[in-house]
Amino acid sequence: MTPKKNIPRVSSRLRHNILKTPAEIRRASGILIYGRRIKSLIFTTDIAIIRNCDADAVMAVYPFTPQQTISDSIIKHSSRPVFCGIGGGTTKGLRTVSLAKDVESQGAMAVVLNAPSTNEDLRAVAGAVEIPVIITVVSPDTDILGRIQAGASILNVAGGRQTVKIVRQIRNHFPETPIIATGGRTAESILATIEAGANAITYTPPSIQEMFRQMMDNYRGNDTDNSSREVHLGETWLG
């Protein structure tokens, strides 16, 4: 039996409180992109969270039309690789191709297209950039082969309650295809997603408001040494 390795931990007096992704995610195989292994992706565009978490990468997708000034700000100030959303719903066609080129030049590690994207748009984006193109999958009825043939490098499964089913279905038919998937809030759901075949997990952190609420609850308590207390946030914590 291989002995457990001790991992040295280095922090500073002020920067020891970071938002940690669930430990279960470390059991994923990860996806190697340009020699960097990606297992955990933080699903946020909040710079404060991005700068104070232990995720391997950032999934910067938001519910508005993508804007270059937003992607530029996130990429410029992130201390980890950024996977940038470039539309695929109301934003499509030549604009998605233009956005893909822009975020590539800004330094994004990969681009992410939403589920409604057509294979034609996917093919156009894949032909325009050199970085990986990720397509989001939300239904078990998705034509995965068509997505791969159109140029998808990685599949991003976000199927809600059907995520595990979709991941398992894809893995059974495409054993070598890289899969990112949402893992849910519990250790059990994360492990089930990994066991189904996901190589990396996206994790949605608590909101800044929730973190502030629990921090203020701690401050209002009787413990005079607040700096040494851990703030537990569901499956994640600030410690």
Q: Any idea what the radius of gyration is? A: 19 Å
| Largest sheet descriptor | 8 strands, parallel, barrel
Please tally the helical runs, counting DSSP H or I stretches of 4 or more residues: 8
Low-confidence runs: 226-239
- SSE order, one letter for each helix or strand: EEEHEHEHEHEHEHEHEHEE
Strand tally is 12
Q: In CATH terms, what is the architecture?
A: Alpha-Beta Barrel
Shape: globular
Number of domains: 1
- CATH class category label: Alpha Beta
Mean pLDDT: 90
CATH superfamily: Aldolase class I
Estimated helix fraction? 25-40%
Termini Cα gap: 31 Å
Proportion in β-strands: 15-25%
Description:
- The protein has 239 residues and is α/β, with parallel strands linked by helices.
- It has one domain (27-206): TIM Barrel, CATH 3.20.20.70.
- The chain is 32% helix and 19% strand.
- It has helices at 47-50, 68-77, 94-106, 119-128, 144-149, 163-173, 187-196, 208-219; strands at residues 31-33, 36-38, 40-43, 57-60, 82-85, 110-113, 133-137, 154-157, 179-182, 200-203, 231-233, 236-238.
- The strands form three sheets. It has an eight-stranded parallel beta barrel, surrounded by five helices. Strands 1-2 form a two-stranded antiparallel sheet. A two-stranded antiparallel ribbon has the order 11-12.
- Helix 2 (68-77) runs parallel beside helix 3 and helix 6 (163-173) runs parallel beside helix 7.
- The longest helix is centred in the middle third of the chain and has 13 residues, at 94-106.
